[in-house]
């Protein structure tokens, strides 16, 4: 649906983006991340036709944005960071105005506008003056204008900035719902938002893509392994022995006694090995139920900082790489210490 090929934009001697290339398929929700000045807004402005590229091309549904801007823009709904609202209009008047502005002819005005209001949760605010709406509802009006004409692509720039926690959750749910049958690019500085909404992450730094993957895969890419915290009901020595016997497990040990008769274990898998199913089967066969299972992978914040620092190190090779977390360090990070008397047993099992 979206194809960016060798896109470059220069401002005098400075390059805002540098030979940028990526594709986004139909129905994908993609998080677009990067530090201030990385080139996110420049890229989005070129895709929407607001800016022209110095070289390269951006295509929407196979249509070049520069060669046929009208046809390309018909497929795009854009919500800038500051929604383009006329505050003295009612929601009804404003959406009617946008309908006329976009020259939508193939849809029935009233049915189409009411369908969008239902989708973004504006039906109860339809007759109200926009100035009197809360910031969360103003953001919904901005999203509604982006949806006029049923565009196949939505480009959302910081859609939850300045909202309170309740409003953020509401807008995130709206975006998830919209993503069921649309392609969405979501630019944000709130990294938790990417984890909550996006299926894929593009990280841009100094005008170049430094990562393109699913959020859960980025951690494995950086650490080279998967760490799990698993709470198991059963004798710690037997559980540890079973965990260490599972093919693909390279480390397993107790971190803390969670409650009577159950223990938390840190389990570390070999690179590119998913041990969750074999671990479940092995423990269930032994009669030791898993009470809790959660990932100990790096947070998206850690991943983001690591990727940015990695790019800096490539430009300045004399800088040292950050120290990789060892299993022992991870034990401390998880908030626990090895249970007393387990150290020697653990060493014997490793030998």
Number of strands: 14
The name of the CATH architecture of the largest domain is 3-Layer(aba) Sandwich
Which percent range describes the beta-strand content? Answer: 25-35%
> Structurally, how many domains make up the residues?
2
Mean pLDDT: 82
Strand order of the largest sheet: 6-7-8-3-9-10
CATH uppermost class of the largest domain: Alpha Beta
Count of helical regions: 13
Biggest pleated sheet: 6 strands, mixed
Rg calculated over all Cα atoms? 25 Å
- Estimated helix fraction: 25-40%
What class, by secondary structure content? alpha/beta
Report on this model:
The chain is of the alpha/beta class. The protein has helices spanning 40-47, 69-73, 91-101, 109-120, 135-147, 165-178, 191-197, 215-223, 236-245, 276-286, 300-315, 327-333, 342-350; strands at 2-11, 14-24, 29-33, 55-60, 63-64, 76-79, 153-157, 183-187, 200-205, 208-213, 226-233, 249-259, 262-269, 290-295. The strands form three sheets. It has a six-stranded mixed sheet, sandwiched between helices. The chain has a four-stranded antiparallel sheet with strand order 2-1-4-5. It is globular, with a radius of gyration of 25 Å. The relative contact order is 0.12. Residues 320-351 have low confidence and may be disordered.
Can you give keywords for this protein?
14 strands, single chain, disordered C terminus, Alpha-Beta Plaits, alpha/beta, 4-stranded antiparallel beta sheet, 2 domains, Rossmann fold, 351 residues
Task: Write a brief caption for the model.
It is built from 13 helices and 14 strands. By secondary structure, it is α/β, with parallel strands linked by helices. It has two domains: 2-219, Rossmann fold (3-Layer(aba) Sandwich); 221-299 and 327-350, ACT domain (Alpha-Beta Plaits), CATH 3.30.70.
């Amino acid at each position: 649906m979206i194809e960016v090929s060798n896109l470059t934009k220069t401002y005098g001697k400075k390059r805002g983006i540098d030979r940028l290339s990526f594709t986004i398929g139909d129905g994908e929700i993609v998080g677009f991340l990067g530090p201030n000045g990385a080139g996110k807004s420049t890229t989005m402005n070129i895709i929407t036709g607001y800016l022209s590229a110095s070289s390269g091309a951006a295509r929407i549904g196979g249509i070049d944005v520069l060669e046929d801007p009208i046809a390309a823009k018909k497929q795009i709904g854009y919500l800038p960071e500051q929604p383009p609202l006329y505050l003295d209009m009612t929601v009804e008047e404003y959406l009617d105005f946008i309908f006329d502005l976009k020259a939508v002819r193939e849809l029935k005005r009233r049915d189409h506008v009411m369908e969008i209001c239902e989708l973004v949760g504006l039906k109860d605010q339809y007759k109200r003056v926009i100035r009197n709406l809360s910031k969360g509802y103003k953001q919904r009006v901005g999203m509604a204008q982006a949806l006029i004409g049923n565009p196949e692509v939505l480009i959302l720039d910081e859609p939850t900035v300045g909202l309170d926690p309740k409003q953020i959750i509401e807008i995130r749910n709206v975006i998830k719902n919209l993503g069921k049958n649309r392609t969405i690019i979501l630019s944000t500085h709130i990294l938790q938002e990417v984890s909550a909404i996006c299926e894929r992450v593009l990280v841009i730094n100094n005008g170049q893509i430094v990562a393109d993957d699913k959020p859960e895969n980025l951690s494995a890419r950086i650490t080279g392994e998967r760490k799990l915290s698993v709470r198991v009901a059963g004798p710690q020595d037997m559980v540890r022995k079973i965990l260490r016997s599972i093919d693909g497990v390279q480390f397993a040990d107790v971190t803390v006694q969670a409650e009577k008769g159950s223990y938390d274990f840190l389990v570390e898998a070999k690179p590119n090995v998913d041990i969750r199913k074999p671990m479940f089967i092995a423990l269930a066969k032994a009669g030791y139920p898993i009470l809790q299972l959660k990932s100990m992978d790096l947070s998206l914040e850690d991943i983001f900082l690591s990727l940015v620092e990695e790019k800096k190190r490539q430009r300045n090779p004399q800088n040292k790489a950050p120290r990789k977390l060892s299993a022992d360090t991870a034990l401390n990070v998880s908030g626990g210490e090895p249970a007393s008397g387990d150290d020697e047993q653990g060493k014997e099992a490793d030998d």
